[in-house]
Amino acid sequence: MNGSWCLITGASSGLGFETAVRLLHRGASLTVASRSAGPELVRRLRARVEAEGDRRSAGAAPEVEAIAMDLASFASVESFLEELESRGRRFATVVFNAGAVASRARRTEDGYDEMLQVNFLSNHLLATRLIESGRIELAVSAGNGRPARFVFVSSEAHRSSPDVPEADLFEIGNYGMGQSVRWYAYSKLFLTAFTEELSRLHNPDDRVRLTVLTMCPGAMRTGIARDAPSILQPLIRLALRLAFPGPEKSAEMLAHLAASPEFDSHTGLYFHLSTRKEKDVRARDPELAARVWRETKEVLACRGVSSHDQ
Ligand SMILES: NC(=O)c1ccc[n+]([C@@H]2O[C@H](COP(=O)([O-])OP(=O)(O)OC[C@H]3O[C@@H](n4cnc5c(N)ncnc54)[C@H](OP(=O)(O)O)[C@@H]3O)[C@@H](O)[C@H]2O)c1
């Protein structure tokens, strides 16, 4: 990845932080984005890479910049895109890693379920706007002839999503802790269906212009349960410590999916850690994928944040 710029969301902790470290070791310059992204995160990433020693084979030291972005706010995603434009940043690779499990239903300032907006709606907005604004080096424009690459972090949970309703895809009612994983699954089903449609739309023939890969990193000990009630936190931390591995192994795979030339002529693949699998049948349903795409565009257009279709 020497000399290429990569954007990774949610690199302030867990899987994203570990993946960012590995991408820096591979020589990629990074833009990291999340709510808390700032100089402190840049310092932490640099310190970790320095402590591990320079593993790059060649090239100038990679750059790292951190820009704050809140996926729970379309306005924040828009500001982030404007900031990228003002910096003239263009990416060969984007890792859509940021995600959240909310402990209960909450509405965003845009009027949507927070988990749905963070895990899916804003990723649609970010991905499509990166392409439309030319922030991505599609195969046509890339200097090295390699297709641009999008890697999405989804979850095997997408298979246990509730059924998709006939009416109003994005209207999720009230739920508490007992139901939050169900609605997390729903948001990841939409994300996974979106990756299928994104891949199809941008690769209409045999030539891959945009490699779109989707991954479930497996259950890991990260900050994912941070929104759980504080009274349960000690128990959750203990359970995570006893039952789940840290994010290191998953980060190896995510960095591999982001960097390896092995995937240059592939797109639309889904991995559960390193195992290639089919997405849930609903995520592969072209009708559902087209409907999710269309209705998301309508939602974004209503909010005045959408532009044209590809
Ligand atoms: N842990 C697991 O067992 C597991 C299993 C399957 C899939 N996953 C997926 O793996 C990905 C990484 O999660 P993780 O396990 O590493 O959890 P984590 O440690 O909680 O990391 C989540 C990252 O997402 C960012 N984020 C959360 N809400 C955000 C928002 N509103 N706007 C922008 N960024 C936001 C956080 O940064 P800020 O706080 O700075 O915003 C953080 O960097 C997620 O997509 C998750 O769904 C995790």
What can you see in these coordinates?
By secondary structure, the protein is an alpha/beta fold. The protein has a single domain, classed as Rossmann fold, CATH 3.40.50.720. Helices cover 40% and strands 13% of the residues. It contains eight helices and eight strands, in the order βαβαβαβαβαβααββα. The protein has an eight-stranded mixed beta sheet, with helices on both faces. Helix 5 packs across helix 8. The two termini are 27 Å apart. NADP nicotinamide-adenine-dinucleotide phosphate (NAP) binds next to helix 1.
Q: In the CATH hierarchy, what is the architecture at level 2?
A: 3-Layer(aba) Sandwich
Q: Low-confidence parts lasting 5 or more residues at pLDDT below 50? A: none
* Average pLDDT: 93
Number of helical stretches of at least 4 residues = 8
CATH superfamily, by name, is NAD(P)-binding Rossmann-like Domain
Rg calc: 18 Å
Counted up, domains total 1
Measured between the Cα atoms of the first and last residue, the distance is: 27 Å
Helix content: 40-55%
CATH topology: Rossmann fold
